[in-house]
Each structure stands twice: as C-alpha cells, then as structure tokens.
Write a structure and sequence with these properties.
The chain has 197 residues and is an alpha+beta fold. The chain is globular. The strands form two sheets. The protein has a six-stranded mixed β-sheet, with helices on both faces. It has a three-stranded antiparallel β-sheet with strand order 2-1-9, with no helix packed on it. β4 (79-84) and β5 (93-100) form a beta hairpin. It is built from six helices and nine strands.
Length: 197
C-alpha cells in the first residue's frame, strides 16, 4: 500500500483514506459481529492480530488500498473498500471488495460510491482493465451492488459458498466510470486527520 499511503480520495458521500493503526480498534470491534463475519467470510482476530494485519497492509505491494468510507475520524468510520492485485500473471486484474459495517450507513449509497471511486483509482492510477469480486452466496446486498455496477456472475463455488463476479473495463465502460467519478478529488492525507492537508 506504499503507493497511496498519503492519498485521500474525496467523494460526495465518502472519504477514502489509507488504513492506519488509528482505524484498527474500530475495525476490530466491527469484526466481532457474527453477521459481518458471515457476510465477509472472515474469522475473528485478536486486537494484536488486527494490528499485525494493518502493518502488513502498509508494507505489501500487492495490497493497493484499504480505505474507510465516511468521515475519517474514528467515530465516523462506516466501513472499508479494498483493492488487491491477486494475479501475478495478469497485473491488469484487481480484486475488489466493500463492507459497510455500520448498520445505520447501509443503503445510503456509501458502498456504491466507494466501489466506483476505487475502480476509477484502479483504472487511472494502476492501469487495471478487469475487476473481480468474490462474495458470499448469502450476501445479496453486495451481489446486487456489484451487478448494478455491470459486474457479471462468472462462477459459483459450493465449497467456499461464494459467487465470483467480473467486469472487463471496455472503453465505453471506462468512460462511464470516469463520468461517475468526475467529482472525486485526490488530496494529500496524513494519519490522524480526516482533513486533506
């Protein structure tokens, strides 16, 4: 994540910032929820393990972003959106995921805007031309969100109980994506501040 460790993306509904140690306690509390564990196919971690994971995010080159939708003061975080480069044979593919952890923030367009912003960043800054989302079969809101953004289901794994959706970014799709995110501003970010500097 070193590429964007000082980058803030400012949208209409969400602010995306790098995942820092300041975010770990809130994230850890979210991930105690059995509902979120089930929706995200996650196992609970200790607080120490969460800090270790956050440090790995800062240092791993294949994890390009983890960000927090919502105003970035710890009390206002709404969730996260992640972009991974998972296919060493095809660096133009990004795996994307989103979680709106705060129940009061769901259904308000935060996830949609966060995914669009992350996809636009991937296309314009990382040269991505394909996106993939792996979603638990029972996570209908997330499946619907990605389908609304033109992702198509390409696989179902009964072993992992997940659905794989993909999107190839054609030139018309690229133009549509850039139009949807034309309002997004990229600003410098420093940990401990929700404000660009």
């Amino acid at each position: 994540m070193l590429l964007n460790q000082n980058t803030l993306l400012l949208g209409k509904k969400v602010v995306l910032v790098p995942y820092t140690s300041e975010h770990v306690p809130r994230y850890h509390e979210w991930m105690k929820s059995e509902e979120l564990q089930q929706l995200t196919a996650s196992e609970p971690l200790s607080l120490e393990q969460e800090y270790t994971m956050q440090r790995s995010w800062r240092e791993d080159a294949d994890k390009k972003w983890q960000a927090q939708p919502g105003i970035t003061e710890e009390s206002c975080m709404a969730g996260d959106v992640n972009l991974f480069l998972t296919d060493p044979g095809d660096p133009a593919v990004g795996e994307i995921e989103v979680m709106i952890a705060e129940p009061s923030c769901r259904g308000r367009g935060f996830g949609t805007e966060a995914v669009l912003m992350m996809m636009s960043y991937g296309v314009t800054k990382l040269g991505l031309t394909k996106f993939e989302a792996k979603i638990g079969q029972g996570n209908e809101p997330s499946i619907h969100l990605f389908q609304k953004l033109h992702f198509e289901q390409v696989a179902v794994s009964s072993v992992f109980q997940e659905v794989t959706l993909r999107l190839a970014v054609s030139e018309p799709m690229r133009q549509w994506l850039l139009e949807q995110t034309s309002h997004v501003a990229e600003k410098p970010y420093r940990a401990g501040s929700a404000e660009p500097h």
